């Protein structure tokens, strides 16, 4: 726990300073931004820095020292701004609130120091972080194991603060850090709930707390799902917060840039980018070409390194998507392998578990998928569907009463629904779309709370709210019970100073051009502790090196 908390403090300092530095060149002179903009911007900046650095070298001590020197320089140059932010922070919190936050940090640190790893962390997340540390980017790495082609920027961020070169053990604390950071943001926003005129952002902040509860016992896992869902929820919440309290175009623009970043965490969240439409329309309407150029530049700085890495790792612009086939590199993952991988993701998400069933129509696979969902998951999906009915009723009443529905809200809801449609038709694992399901419920409930209720409308919407609460209860009960059982069994584990290490497994090895490649003898634990490693021996056996060393890259054996 102690190592986890110290690592979090360090991450917060580094990211906040990096954020202050990265916001300086933007065309926002005289604009007062919320303090949370700086650490969030810093997380984005550090992640992009790690991605770029990995193209040219290892994300190791040198990478970290350069980052440290840069933020020290920023701290010196921007010391007056830092002092202003510190005073603003002190004035915005009260003693009981600080005490509560400290207790909450200890609470999440307990779960981040021990627990279980996400299945995919053992399959490829941990090994990808190790590859970042040991080699940086390796051409054709997707041939060694197809999962490496997914190229989530979240793992680049995790590799920066792994710090194995310093501690002797890889720290995997970034998910717990994001949970703590975003929950404190939510708690701070909810403290004046009763005084708020609007409650959509409040309900989304409750959604952040809800999602954190769901993943709490796996907080130490640097899973790309978790990072993507947390950032998606934060983005949607911050959008509503701005919509209800500030209506600042600059914030909408910054959140649109953040949507690009979320896409690089996991491409399944790409349709959040729909929100760009709203600030883009306003900027073009007002002919703010300088601002447009600035925000577009920031978006490109985030996206281009991600796309370059996609090409270098897999030979495809967006792996595993074959719709854009413009490259012919020798290390390119064969389309046959890509399609099998993409189809496997889809059929596993639909609970069919057989790639030969990939062409089943929705009416055929939907009953199978539904049957495989747990009861609490079915009721949770029911809560979402009821919420959409509630939102439709609220909006219909607004139209009847000739009240305006803000375009920024319509676009946001469209982005959420579009992402859910993408989730449902491609790979409907609940965990892949959980943030958007939560967001849909929170937006509907918040919209209902914002309206005056009387007569038949009150009875109808009140009944829908009752059904939503009843439908959410089993999901809540399931995870509260899980947390209680986990806590009881974990209290005596010896992780109060250091964090639990990555899982280990018995490994075998094979040679490719004289280079040793490890693989698990049994099961699917692609151990962080053996590098380079693949979870599947047969994937390595159909690959070879383009030269004599691993740094030369992998290519398929045709």
Provide an overview of this structure.
With 558 residues, the protein is mainly alpha-helical. Among the domains are: 2-333, no CATH class; 507-556, no CATH class. Helices cover 65% and strands 3% of the residues. The chain is built from 22 helices and four strands. The chain has helices at residues 2-23, 37-56, 61-77, 79-92, 95-112, 119-134, 141-144, 153-160, 164-167, 174-190, 200-215, 224-245, 249-265, 277-285, 289-314, 335-349, 362-372, 375-400, 407-426, 430-449, 455-490, 537-541, and strands at 507-512, 515-520, 543-545, 554-556. A two-stranded antiparallel ribbon has the order 1-2. Strand 3 and strand 4 form a beta hairpin. Helix 2 (37-56) crosses helix 15 (289-314). The longest helix has 36 residues, at 455-490. It is globular, with a radius of gyration of 24 Å. The relative contact order is 0.12. The model has no long low-confidence stretch (mean pLDDT 93).
Core attributes:
single chain, two-stranded antiparallel sheet, mainly alpha, 3% strand, globular, 558 residues, 22 helices
- The counted number of beta strands is 4
Rg of Cα set? 24 Å
- Quaternary structure type: single chain
Q: For the largest sheet, list the strands in their spatial order.
A: 1-2
């Amino acid at each position: 726990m102690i190592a986890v908390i110290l690592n979090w403090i360090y991450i917060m300092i580094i990211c906040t300073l990096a954020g202050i530095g990265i916001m300086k060149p933007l065309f926002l002179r005289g604009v007062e931004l919320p303090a949370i903009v700086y650490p969030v911007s810093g997380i984005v900046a550090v992640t992009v820095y790690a991605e770029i650095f990995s193209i040219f070298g290892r994300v190791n001590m040198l990478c970290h020292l350069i980052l440290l020197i840069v933020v020290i320089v920023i701290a010196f140059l921007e010391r007056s701004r830092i002092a202003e932010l510190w005073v603003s922070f002190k004035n915005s919190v009260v003693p009981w609130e600080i005490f509560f936050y400290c207790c909450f940090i200890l609470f999440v640190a307990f779960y981040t120091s021990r627990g279980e790893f996400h299945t995919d962390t053992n399959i490829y997340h941990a090994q990808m972080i190790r590859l970042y540390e040991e080699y940086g980017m390796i051409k054709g790495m997707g041939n060694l194991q197809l999962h490496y082609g997914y190229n989530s920027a979240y793992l680049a961020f995790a590799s920066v603060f792994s710090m194995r070169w310093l501690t002797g053990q890889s720290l995997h604390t970034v998910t717990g850090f994001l949970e703590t950071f975003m929950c404190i943001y939510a708690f701070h926003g909810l403290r004046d709930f009763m005084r708020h005129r609007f409650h959509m952002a409040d309900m989304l902040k409750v959604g952040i707390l809800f999602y954190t509860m769901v993943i709490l016992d796996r907080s130490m896992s640097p899973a790309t799902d978790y990072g993507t869902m947390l950032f998606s929820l934060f983005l949607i919440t911050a959008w509503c917060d701005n919509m209800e309290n500030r209506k600042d175009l600059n914030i909408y623009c910054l959140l649109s840039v953040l949507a690009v970043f979320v896409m690089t965490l996991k491409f399944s969240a790409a349709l959040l980018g729909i929100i760009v439409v709203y600030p883009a329309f306003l900027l073009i309407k007002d002919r703010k070409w300088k601002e447009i150029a600035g925000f577009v530049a920031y978006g490109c700085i985030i996206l281009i390194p991600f796309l370059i890495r996609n090409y270098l790792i897999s030979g495809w612009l967006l792996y595993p998507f074959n719709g854009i086939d413009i490259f012919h590199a020798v290390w390119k993952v064969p389309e046959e392998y890509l399609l099998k991988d993409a189809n496997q993701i889809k059929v596993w998400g639909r609970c069919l578990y057989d790639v030969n069933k990939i062409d089943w129509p929705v009416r055929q696979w939907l009953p199978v998928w539904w049957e495989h969902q747990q009861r609490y998951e079915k009721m949770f999906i029911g809560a979402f569907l009821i919420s959409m009915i509630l939102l439709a009723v609220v909006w219909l009443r607004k139209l009847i009463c000739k009240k305006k529905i803000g375009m920024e809200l319509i676009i946001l809801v469209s982005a959420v629904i579009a992402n859910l449609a993408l989730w449902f038709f491609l790979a409907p694992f609940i965990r892949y779309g959980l943030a958007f399901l939560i967001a849909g419920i929170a937006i509907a409930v918040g919209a209902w709370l914002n309206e005056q209720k009387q007569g038949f409308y009150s009875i109808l919407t009140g009944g829908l709210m009752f059904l939503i609460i009843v439908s959410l209860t089993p999901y809540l009960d399931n995870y509260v019970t899980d947390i209680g059982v986990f806590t009881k069994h974990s209290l005596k584990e010896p992780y109060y100073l250091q964090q639990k290490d990555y899982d280990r497994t018995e490994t075998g090895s094979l040679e490719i051009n004289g280079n040793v490649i490890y693989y698990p003898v049994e099961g699917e634990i692609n151990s962080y502790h053996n590098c380079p490693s693949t979870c599947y021996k047969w994937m390595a056996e159909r690959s070879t090196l383009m030269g004599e060393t691993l740094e030369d890259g992998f290519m398929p054996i045709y």
